[in-house]
Amino acid sequence: MSENKSPYVRPSWDEYFMEVARTIAKRATCDRGRSGCVIARDRQLLVTGYVGSPKGLPHCDDVGHLMKKVIHDDDSISQHCMRTVHAEQNAICQAAKLGVSIDGATVYCKMTPCRTCAMLIINSGIVRVVCEKKYHQGAESEGMFKQAGISLEYFEEEVEKYENQ
Questions:
Q1: What is the C-alpha separation between 110 and 22, in angstroms, rounded?
Q2: Cβ(85)–Cβ(114) below 8 Å
Q3: What is the pLDDT of residues 4-32, one digit of tens each?
Q4: d(CA 118, CA 131)
Q5: Which residues are tagged catalytic?
Q6: C-beta of residue 30 within 8 angstroms of C-beta of residue 59
Q7: Which are the contacts of 36, defined by CB distance < 8 A and separation ≥ 6?
Q8: What is the mean pLDDT of the chain?
Q9: What is the structure's pLDDT at 79?
Q10: What is the DSSP letter of 53?
Q11: Cβ 117 vs Cβ 95: under 8 Å
């Protein structure tokens, strides 16, 4: 008697690199985002990064968050943890530290990069950004990527939710 098994379906390259980013995120030291990032080019992983405090400084998981309120142009207020370096920033720093060119690469990350990360991505020569979900304050970054000619794609159109947004 033969079983009717479905054939194995390999993940696409985008699915593969996003899964690696999810694994990298497990090293993150701020429980608000726990996000990871992969930078790849030509189906080759170049560098990774995750959310964490600058080297040698205390982590949110150990000493708590360093929260700041941000008042936006529309008078809405959001809260951000300022203790950590974002996953995208750490991946770009890792590339610089190791002398790895990320020109022409793709970034895989948990949500729409923030404004600062977007500027770094643009100036690094990255040409494509793939996000798992949207960021609640991501419209400015989306506009910057569009203006800079950088492709921005989402696995889901849903906005990432986390505590004290």
A1: 8
A2: no
A3: 788 999 999 999 999 999 999 999 999 88
A4: 12
A5: 88
A6: yes
A7: 20, 21, 22, 23, 24, 25, 26, 27, 28, 48, 49, 50, 51, 87, 109, 110
A8: 91
A9: 82
A10: P
A11: no
For residue 116, pLDDT beyond 90: yes
Helix (H) or strand (E) holding 91: helix 87-98
pTM of the model: 0.89
Three-class SS state of 117:
helix
The tally of CA atoms less than 13 A away on the side-chain side of residue 92 is: 21
3-state secondary structure string across 132-161: EEECCCCHHHHHHHHHHCCEEEECCCCECC
Q: Are 52 and 59 in contact (CB under 8 A)?
A: yes
Q: What is the pLDDT of residues 128-155, one digit of tens each?
A: 999 998 887 778 999 999 999 999 999 9
3-state secondary structure of 160: coil
Amino acid (1-letter code) at residue 27: R
pLDDT at residue 2, as a whole number: 56
Tokens of 161: 């939710």
Q: Is 126:141 a contact under the CB 8 Å cutoff? A: no
Q: Dihedral of CA 62/81/126/42: which sign?
A: positive
Residue 26, Cα to own-chain centre: how many angstroms?
13
Structure tokens at 105: 């690469």
